[in-house]
Design brief:
single chain; 207 residues; alpha/beta; five-stranded mixed sheet; two-stranded antiparallel ribbon; 40% helix
Length: 207
């Protein structure tokens, strides 16, 4: 067989395997929850905000891990994924982020989601929990293109998908408030997810 034919056959096989994988994923029952830590695993490109001793990706991972651990403790099946992941289906997906700002302390918390009623309603429920606790700026929903058209919407196919910006890591006042509360924030996220799934779980302590 000529080299050109071997190459064509190889790529045809890859395409068939990819199609088979996509079909397999589409037939599988969706996972209850996917938790993504923003920027996790990236070494170049968009690797997240950095400010003095704080790295956004480290906080993203910490909160995502604690959220997933709590959901698992409640008997909910969870998949923890990094920034870039293979296609996956879920009932609920949440991406954890902290914001940054060129003009210090001009940003804060916000939420992004695809344009569906289910995600919009979930966002309203999340804000009802977090907004009264967070004593800094709260932006309108989908206030940036990165939130409105979040890249992972194309790989994580969820009935409800939220991208949570939990505060501005480049603002010292906000990091001073956030740092000792990361565990409680993770519990609040887990609680919000569990309630969306119809689970009866204890409400976490006030932040």
């Amino acid at each position: 067989m000529k080299l050109k034919n071997k190459t064509a056959a190889f790529f045809a096989l890859l395409i068939l395997l990819l199609i088979g994988f996509i079909l397999y994923q589409s037939l599988k029952a969706p996972i209850s929850v996917v938790i993504q830590a923003g920027h996790e695993g990236r070494t170049c490109g968009n690797t997240g905000a950095v400010c003095k001793n704080y790295k956004e990706v480290a906080w993203n991972i910490k909160v995502a891990d604690m959220t997933a651990k709590q959901l698992e403790a409640w008997g909910i099946d969870v998949r923890r994924v990094p920034a870039d992941t293979l296609p996956v289906r879920a009932k609920i997906a949440v991406a954890i982020h902290f914001d940054s700002a060129k003009h210090i302390c001009r940003s804060g918390a916000s939420v992004g989601y695809p344009d569906t009623n289910a995600s919009r309603t979930f966002a309203r429920h999340w804000k009802a929990l977090y907004k009264p606790c967070f004593p800094f700026t709260w932006h309108t929903d989908n206030f940036t293109d990165n939130l409105k058209h979040y890249y992972a919407y194309h790989t994580i196919h969820a009935e409800k998908f939220l991208v949570l910006e939990l505060g501005e890591i480049t603002c010292q006042k906000q990091t001073a408030w956030l740092k000792p509360r990361l565990h409680k924030i993770a519990l609040l996220i887990a609680y919000a997810i569990a309630k969306e799934l119809g689970k009866q779980v204890p409400k976490p302590p006030v932040l």
